[in-house]
């Protein structure tokens, strides 16, 4: 974490803040011109959270209902059309100072700031801190004298949601909460990041930064510290004295690895110093090694007196980019190389964690990063329609090996997707980009900058720096502020935008986001020759538990989106009813609809990942859309639900992203009786060394009995995919209406007793091939705990309870997609194995890890109150036919 002492840095966020709503302009003209009567406002003063957003304060005060239930968000749209005034007071600190600054780290969006009734200035920007010189005001007050601070929020600016014209974008406000396919319209307003008072001596460090590099062959690391020194005149100093900078680098054990001193003359305003570290402990992405962090510091001295200090924890690594193997000559470099080793990207796209992103807790960020790490993810793309995330997110990525693809705040709009050239917008974009570059460039996890999401100069044609002045400006800024990192003009970066079977044109592509049907889904992705797949997904209905939280019982039905306004309100784009009925036949109830929808989401997503991964490093990575969602959808492309529960697709992703993973290549999910089933078996390796490996392919009939088994093996090189052979067998009537193929490797989890997330389903009928799934109802689970709840290894402030269960199928037919459910609703839970299919008599051991929910925003309705007694977790196991 970067820490700057600036002699005194006083947080103001934890003061007693209040907020009140007004009609527009009323806070400026507080009395009627005609009557002189005070204009009181539309709400009373109420307690406010800072950082936070007005919506949560209104909810806590009882002014609005939970906007994430049913269609309640429609009742909240009045909030964005009011002005809101924050107020608090603080005491004038004692002591002398050369400069006093009042700093707002995040104002969302337009505000006027008053101190003791005097207007300090206006601010209209989410990402550039608002900094006001309050030196004279503080010097004019006695120590301990109260000072009143007011912030007048001027409603929200008019901006587009997902549908509109990118060329007419005029703000740098996050657009997703004006309405996107995975969100509602709930436009945040408030102080979304911290507020602090900074007291400077005669000089301070300005925009300090660190960059590292490593010479792996020479076993040497380079740590470059650079930035500026800002000087202030005071009564005791002219601000032009000679100063000294003392640099140090401590290894992960706290031992000095390197240090140096640098003299600054009165004319020096910049510094640049490189420390050499012998035999550095290298930082690696998740799955390739550890993430040791060094602590670097820069101390600014005037003689023996310390004026300022900046410390930061950083990893030492080299970062390079190269073109893919057999890449077209005009392709951009899409292979990331860390410490000389090419890294196959196994990524996820991250949306903002909540509509009210100012209220997101550190625990929520930690839970998302924990789930990434457990899913073998090594990159997160921070999407251009969202936000520049808070520093805590990047710190978590530094500590856990998650590379970051950071986009600037621009996105497609559908009607046109041309980057805006409006002069005022370009100025705002320049300021956002500069602020983001200065504030995030020191993070070792940061791997690439992108100009924005799906920016196109023409339909299906991504914009480039050569044809767009907006993106050319961003490229120049990255070159000036962070030249060690790659800049991509947009995602996807072309030369075509969307995935296609056409050869030679798919470099970095997006799409699709829905199951393409049988057999086209398998033809499209199985034959794609894309070099990089920076966004694609698959939609699936939410869990039964989430549906029951957001829908009134009368709406607990299986329904197409077009037939139900409440379901549509929570995910109009992602209706899967017709798709699922075509595969499974009639869907009798909400419970089975939700579960079979998640089967298709997992199946479709896994196939895309495996198809891409087979071509590494001709194809250099996948970034799935999307890890999370900012509000609870009835159906969406997310892997993890708003309330924190992983879906079946999460576990399918974890399996497909495993360091050693066996996969099956097929071209359709039906195989008629009398035909020959043929599929190729592959073994994928990432982050592990060359080894002899074996894979067993077991074929089960509809009744769960073993029909045939095959063994494959061979030498699997490190960081490669190996074709092990072809699986061939006759499809006989004895298999029944469907059959299963389970692949088990000789490494990793124990044998799966009939399959887990790497179980493949095939029907014997081209019409509703998965229909037998719904008639296989005779599974019966017996669950026994093998130990007591014990304290597990903590993760980033999350304390875990862990327990292992044995689950056995005592029924006469397969128990399909067995998974644990935490039933007290007080915990986030993750399991080492989930969505297993247990054949009759089959069993599996499942270890679960539970941590008390500590989310923010409107997730508070779904978790224990602060300070409440929390019972121990309770876990049940469900499968497809659970009631």
UniProtKB/TrEMBL annotation:
Domain Beta-mannosidase-like galactose-binding: 43-192
Domain Glycoside hydrolase family 2 immunoglobulin-like beta-sandwich: 221-317
Reaction equation(s) it catalyzes: Hydrolysis of terminal, non-reducing beta-D-mannose residues in beta-D-mannosides
EC number: 3.2.1.25
This protein's UniProt keywords: Glycosidase, Hydrolase, Signal
GO terms classed as biological process: carbohydrate metabolic process; glycoprotein catabolic process
Domain Glycoside hydrolase family 2 catalytic: residue ranges: 335-487
Pfam families hit by this protein: Glyco_hydro_2, Glyco_hydro_2_C, Glyco_hydro_2_N2
Any one Gene Ontology molecular-function term assigned to this protein's record: beta-mannosidase activity
The keyword Hydrolase belongs to this UniProt entry's keyword annotation: yes
Top class in the EC scheme: hydrolase
Domain of life: Bacteria
PANTHER family noted in UniProt: BETA-MANNOSIDASE (PTHR43730)
Family, per entry: Belongs to the glycosyl hydrolase 2 family.
Protein name: beta-mannosidase
Organism: Paenibacillus antri
């Amino acid at each position: 974490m970067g820490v700057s002492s600036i002699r005194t840095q006083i947080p103001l966020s934890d003061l007693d803040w209040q907020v009140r709503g007004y009609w527009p302009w009323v806070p400026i003209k507080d009395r009627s011109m005609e009557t002189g009567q005070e204009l009181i406002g539309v709400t009373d003063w109420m307690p406010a959270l800072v950082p936070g957003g007005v919506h949560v304060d209104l909810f806590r005060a009882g002014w609005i209902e939970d906007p994430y239930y049913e269609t309640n968000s429609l009742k909240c749209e009045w909030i964005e059309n009011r002005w809101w005034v924050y107020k608090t007071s603080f005491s004038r600190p004692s002591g002398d100072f050369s400069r006093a600054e009042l700093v707002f780290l995040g104002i969302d969006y337009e505000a006027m700031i008053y101190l003791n009734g005097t207007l300090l200035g206006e601010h209209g920007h989410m990402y550039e801190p608002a900094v006001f010189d309050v030196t004279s005001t503080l010097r004019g007050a006695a120590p301990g004298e109260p000072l009143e601070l007011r912030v007048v929020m001027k409603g929200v600016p008019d901006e587009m949601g997902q549908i509109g014209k990118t060329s007419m974008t005029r703000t740098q406000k996050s657009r997703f909460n004006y309405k996107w396919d995975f969100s509602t319209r709930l436009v945040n307003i408030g102080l979304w990041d911290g507020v602090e008072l900074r007291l400077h001596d005669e000089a301070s460090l300005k925009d300090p930064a660190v960059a590292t590099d490593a010479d792996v062959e020479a076993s040497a690391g380079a740590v470059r510290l650079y930035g500026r020194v800002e000087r202030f005149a005071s009564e005791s100093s002219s601000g032009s004295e000679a100063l000294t900078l003392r640099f140090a680098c401590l290894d992960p054990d706290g031992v000095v690895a390197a240090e140096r001193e640098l003299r600054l003359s009165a004319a020096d305003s910049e510094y640049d110093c490189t420390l050499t570290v012998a035999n550095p402990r290298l930082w690696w992405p998740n799955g390739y090694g550890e993430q040791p962090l060094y602590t670097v510091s820069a101390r600014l001295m005037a003689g023996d007196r310390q004026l300022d200090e900046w410390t930061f924890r950083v990893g030492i690594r080299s970062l390079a980019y190269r073109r893919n193997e057999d890449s077209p000559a005009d392709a951009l470099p899409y292979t990331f190389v860390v410490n000389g080793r090419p890294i196959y990207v196994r990524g996820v796209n991250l949306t903002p964690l909540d509509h009210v992103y100012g209220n997101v807790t550190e625990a929520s960020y930690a839970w998302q990063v924990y789930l990434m790490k457990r899913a073998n993810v090594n990159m997160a793309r921070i999407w251009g329609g969202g936000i520049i995330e808070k520093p805590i997110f990047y710190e978590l990525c530094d500590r856990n090996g998650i590379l970051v693809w950071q986009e600037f705040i621009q996105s497609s709009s559908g009607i046109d997707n041309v980057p805006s050239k409006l002069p005022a917008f370009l100025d705002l974009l320049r300021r956002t980009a500069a602020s983001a570059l200065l504030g995030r460039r020191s993070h070792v996890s940061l791997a690439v900058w992108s100009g924005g999401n799906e920016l196109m100069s023409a339909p299906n044609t991504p914009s480039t720096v050569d044809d767009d002045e907006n993106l050319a400006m961003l490229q120049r800024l990255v070159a000036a502020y962070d030249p060690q990192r790659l800049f991509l003009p947009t995602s996807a970066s072309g030369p075509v935008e969307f995935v296609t079977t056409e050869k030679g044109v798919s470099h970095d592509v997006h799409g699709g986001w829905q199951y393409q049907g049988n057999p086209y889904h398998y033809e499209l992705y199985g034959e794609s020759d894309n070099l990089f797949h920076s966004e694609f997904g698959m939609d699936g209905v939410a869990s039964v538990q989430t549906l029951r939280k957001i829908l009134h019982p009368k709406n607990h039905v299986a329904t197409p989106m077009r037939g139900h306004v409440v379901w549509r309100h929570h995910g109009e784009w992602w209706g899967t009813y017709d798709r699922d009925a075509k595969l499974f036949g009639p869907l009798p109830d909400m419970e089975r609809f939700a579960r079979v929808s998640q089967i298709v989401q997992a199946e479709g997503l896994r196939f895309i990942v495996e198809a891409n991964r087979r071509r590494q490093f001709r194809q250099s990575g996948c970034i799935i859309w999307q890890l999370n969602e900012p509000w609870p959808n009835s159906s969406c492309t997310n892997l993890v639900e708003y309330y924190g529960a992983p879906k079946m697709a999460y576990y399918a992703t974890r399996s497909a992203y495993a360091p050693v993973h066996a996969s099956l290549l097929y071209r359709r999910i039906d195989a008629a009786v009398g035909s020959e089933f043929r599929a190729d078996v592959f073994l994928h390796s990432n982050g592990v060394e060359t080894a002899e490996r074996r894979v067993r392919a077991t074929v089960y009939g509809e009744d769960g009995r073993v029909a045939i088994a095959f063994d494959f093996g061979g030498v699997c090189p490190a960081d490669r995919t190996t074709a092990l052979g072809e699986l061939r067998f006759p499809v006989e009537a004895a298999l029944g209406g469907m059959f299963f193929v389970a692949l088990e490797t000789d490494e990793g989890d124990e044998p799966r007793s009939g399959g887990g997330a790497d179980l493949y389903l095939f029907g014997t009928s081209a019409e509703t091939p998965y229909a037998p799934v719904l008639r296989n109802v005779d599974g019966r689970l017996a669950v026994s705990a093998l130990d007591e709840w014990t304290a597990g290894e903590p993760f980033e402030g999350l304390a875990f309870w862990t327990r292992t269960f044995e689950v056995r199928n005592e029924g006469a037919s397969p128990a399909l997609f067995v998974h644990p459910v935490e039933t007290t609703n007080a915990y986030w839970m993750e399991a080492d194995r989930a969505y297993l299919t247990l054949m009759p008599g089959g069993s599996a051991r499942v270890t679960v890890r539970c941590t008390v929910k500590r989310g923010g925003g409107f997730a508070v309705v779904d978790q224990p109150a602060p300070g409440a007694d929390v019972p121990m977790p309770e876990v049940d196991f469900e499968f497809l036919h659970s009631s």
